[in-house]
Write a structure and sequence with these properties.
The complex is a heterodimer of chains A (112) and B (110). Chain A has no helices and eleven strands. Chain A has 112 residues and is an all-beta fold. In chain A, the strands form two sheets. In chain A, strands 2, 4, 5, 6, 9, 10 and 11 form a seven-stranded mixed β-sheet that branches. A four-stranded antiparallel β-sheet of chain A has the order 1-3-8-7, with no helix packed on it. The N and C termini of chain A lie far apart (36 Å). Chain B is built from no helices and eleven strands. Classes of the chains: A mainly beta (112), B mainly beta (110). The A-B interface holds A 4, 31, 33, 35, 40-45, 48, 50, 58-59, 90, 97-98, 100-106 and B 4, 31-32, 34, 36, 41-45, 48, 88, 90, 92, 96-103.
Chain lengths: 112, 110
Amino acid sequence: DGGITQSPKYLFRKEGQNVTLSCEQNLNHDAMYWYRQDPGQGLRLIYYSQIVNDFQKGDIAEGYSVSREKKESFPLTVTSAQKNPTAFYLCASSKMRGYEQYFGPGTRLTVT
Amino acid sequence: EDKVVQSPLSLVVHEGDTVTLNCSYEVTNFRSLLWYKQEKKAPTFLFMLTSSGIEKKSGRLSSILDKKELFSILNITATQTGDSAVYLCAVERGSEKLVFGKGTKLTVNP
């Protein structure tokens, strides 16, 4: 079955630790995206990538980093520099520019 | 500043009712408007609208875009409890990025 997988579903970390969220897709999509969703807020774009080895900052990139070494994978690292990392993180992919985005099941990160 | 505003933020109806969800937007270089349904985790794609006045329909759901007045509506007829979800509206800008509204939480009671 084609789709987007994110792991883990729930993640707990102590303040000051970096943590990496996984996102994999087997849809053969070129573009991949990371969003953050907070209660009562819309989704906000963290980073996106249109092709392998290239990525762009979104609206709230500070404190986050990404890599795109393979077409299928777009991991997100939440660094200790991110001031409010506790949130629901969603990964998405799309065929290419102008096509709808499909979302993974999300990772709920809690930092204490 | 680009913005997408959805209304109402929350709505409670009874099964069988018809609902209309609203989405207005102000973005630079509009490309398309998308509707998603989010039940518990991943938003699932409903519609993508690019042209004014052309209704898109899928079962009991339909949507239309007005590019002159900068809004879209999502209609759900004969609502069912399974329609309970948060409905997200997003607008794609010329930069290829999506701007999301805060969502409308729909609760359908039996």
